[in-house]
Design a protein that fits this description.
By secondary structure, this protein is an alpha/beta fold. It contains twelve helices and eleven strands. The strands form three sheets. A six-stranded mixed beta sheet has the order 7-6-8-5-9-11, with helices on both faces. Helix 6 links the parallel strand 6 and strand 7.
Length: about 325
């Protein structure tokens, strides 16, 4: 147990360039915030994190220092969540359905084909259901500073897939999301949860046959080097929260809390603008790299994947499911 504890501590608070360890202050900052995420430096998440850093440091006039660690430098998403909740080196990360480990109802974020469009998602997140979901995050120990809308998730593969039956026994990497796993099992696939940092090697070595992610992740993960096809399942339109440890947030003076909240809003606006600009060209970029886009029978995928998950929902998850499904984006 002692060795396991030491291993986790080293993963979450390992030495960084410049000699900083975990939450130890660097420079003249009175308060240090460590922001970690899983995406690379070229991704809009990272650019937004740097925007947050600049905003908070400038507005606090040096009283706050923000360190940004991209590309899973502070561990996997689950590692960073645990580190935040134990105040063990990471203070802010970007997370969504992975929070179901701490609150099962948050797994609804990973429900396939539940969100119908970006407009539907926006209406959900800014309405009563959105407040309810943020309340669940807070009960887990997370202060929500904003959210990033993600592009629809598609499957990538080295064979053409046009119907659910084509994925029978297909070994696919998924995140550690019970609903995503259940959805792919329902169509006969073999979902294999795996850290994002391991996916490229897993595809290259044939440990997995495919993976599912938004186009931005396909591009920044260089998956086009080891996958031939993008299968347009668009099975999940999701989001991630900009999540800060509530204990860390509550420990800040009220004026700095306000700066952090405003910094989160600025980060959200900035990332969304970058996301919209990039989303339009991602398909073109991936096609130039040799990937072929394959249209599928989305109604068949939706019917089979949804049926395979709805029956597994708890009473409270089913209530959230029905509330989200009922949200009218035109109101």
């Amino acid at each position: 147990m002692l060795m396991a504890s030491l291993a986790f501590s080293m993963a979450a608070c390992s030495v960084r360039p410049g000699g900083a360890v975990g939450a130890v202050a660097e420079g003249n900052g009175n308060y240090v915030i460590n922001l970690g995420h899983t995406n690379g430096e070229g991704d809009s998440w990272h650019q937004a994190a740097l925007r947050f850093k600049d905003y908070v440091e400038e507005k606090s006039q040096g009283r706050m220092q923000v360190n940004v660690y991209p590309d899973s430098q502070l561990g996997t998403e689950i590692d960073m969540i645990q580190s935040i909740l134990t105040q063990n080196g990471c203070d802010i990360t970007f997370t969504g359905e992975s929070m179901q480990t701490y609150q099962p109802d948050l797994g609804i974020i990973g429900m396939p084909y539940l969100i119908k469009s970006d407009a539907h998602m926006e209406a959900v997140l800014t309405g009563d259901v959105g407040k309810e979901l943020e309340g669940l995050m807070e009960k887990c120990g997370m202060k929500v500073l904003g959210y990033f809308i993600r592009g629809p998730r598609n499957v990538t593969a080295n064979k053409k897939v046009v119907s659910p039956g084509d994925m029978d026994k297909f070994v696919i990497r998924t995140p550690q999301s019970a609903m995503t796993v259940a959805a792919f099992r329902s169509i006969g696939a073999k979902p294999t949860p795996m850290a994002l940092t391991q996916v490229y090697d897993g595809l290259q070595q044939g440990v997995i046959e495919g993976q599912e992610n938004p186009l931005a992740m396909v591009w920044h993960g260089n998956f086009y080097e080891v996958q031939d096809y993008v299968i347009r399942t668009e099975h999940l339109r999701g989001w991630v929260y900009i999540a800060m440890g509530k204990e860390k947030f509550d420990a800040l003076p009220s004026d700095l809390q306000q700066i952090v909240v405003e910094g989160g809003q600025e980060m959200q606006r900035y990332e969304h603008r970058l996301f919209l600009e990039k989303e339009e060209e991602l398909e073109h970029l991936l096609a130039e790299e040799g990937m072929e886009f394959v249209d599928v029978d989305q109604e068949a995928f939706a019917r089979e994947m949804t049926a395979g998950v709805v029956d597994t929902l708890t009473y409270s998850q089913k209530a959230l499911y029905e509330k989200i499904e009922a949200v009218d984006p035109d109101l």
